[in-house]
Amino acid sequence: MTSIADLRKSYERAELDESASHSDPLQQFDQWLQEAIASEVPEPNAMTVATVASNLRPSTRVVLIKGYDAQGITWYSNYESRKGQELAGNPFAALQFHWVELERVVRIEGVVERVSAEESDAYFHTRPLDSRIGAWASPQSQVIAGRSVLVANAAKYGARFLLQPPRPPHWGGYRLKPDRWEFWQGRKSRLHDRLRYTLAADGQWVRERLAP
């Protein structure tokens, strides 16, 4: 049996240099995400969301990014889930993308807000029918007796709404407004490249290199 402590990898695919990176972190993120998509890495849109509860206990989960622009990073979820409750009490969160095949990580921090009802409605109606029914059927993060509860709920709401389920009031979008980004590129001998962008008081981004 291989010891976990003996697992090692040499990172040699690319580099991240200040002179070749964008001054705007959103542009750098767009470049890396598009390269991840073009490289056909598994689920390039998957990101880890970290939140902190009122008892200061952190938790993470993986969700899918659904949009990004100058306003922030957007995803959709159940407002009554654990992450929804934690964001209601503490709106600060962190995101992380890990594109293993490209030896890259992007970390993003900032404050989270709900998107407008109109924006949530518009996205909800682009989802497949079973996903729209699923938003009604699953009391996310709550204890249930078994999978049969979900199946029964899906049947109930499917019969109720047929082909036109409305967006549940407890379901919608979140947008993280970044004030800090970090881009990590694996390099040989563990001398990795790390560039951090911090939002200054004047609205400009300050780019700095961090030791790996």
List the total number of helices.
5
Rg, rounded, reads 20 Å
- If classified by CATH, what would the architecture of the largest domain be? Roll
CATH homologous superfamily title of the largest domain: Electron Transport, Fmn-binding Protein, Chain A
Helix content: 25-40%
Note the overall shape.
globular
Distance between the termini: 30 Å
Number of strands: 9
Low-confidence stretches: none
Outline the biggest β-sheet. 9 strands, antiparallel
Strand content: 25-35%
- Write down the overall mean pLDDT: 95
Succession of helices and strands: HEEEEHEEHHHEEE
Within the CATH hierarchy, at the fold level, what is the topology of the largest domain?
Pnp Oxidase, Chain A
**What is the structural class?**
alpha+beta
CATH class of the largest domain: Mainly Beta
Domain count: 2
Oligomerization: single chain
Features of the shown structure:
globular; 212 residues; 9-stranded antiparallel β-sheet; alpha+beta; 33% strand; Pnp Oxidase, Chain A
In brief, what are we looking at here?
The protein has 212 residues and is an alpha+beta fold. It contains five helices and nine strands. Helix content is 25%, strand content 33%.
Give the SSE layout.
Blueprint: H1 25-38, E1 46-52, E2 58-64, E3 67-69, E4 72-78, H2 82-89, E5 92-99, E6 104-114, H3 117-124, H4 129-137, H5 147-161, E7 171-185, E8 193-199, E9 205-209
Antiparallel strand pairs: 1-2, 1-5, 3-4, 4-7, 5-6, 6-7, 7-8, 8-9
Helix pairs in contact: 4-5
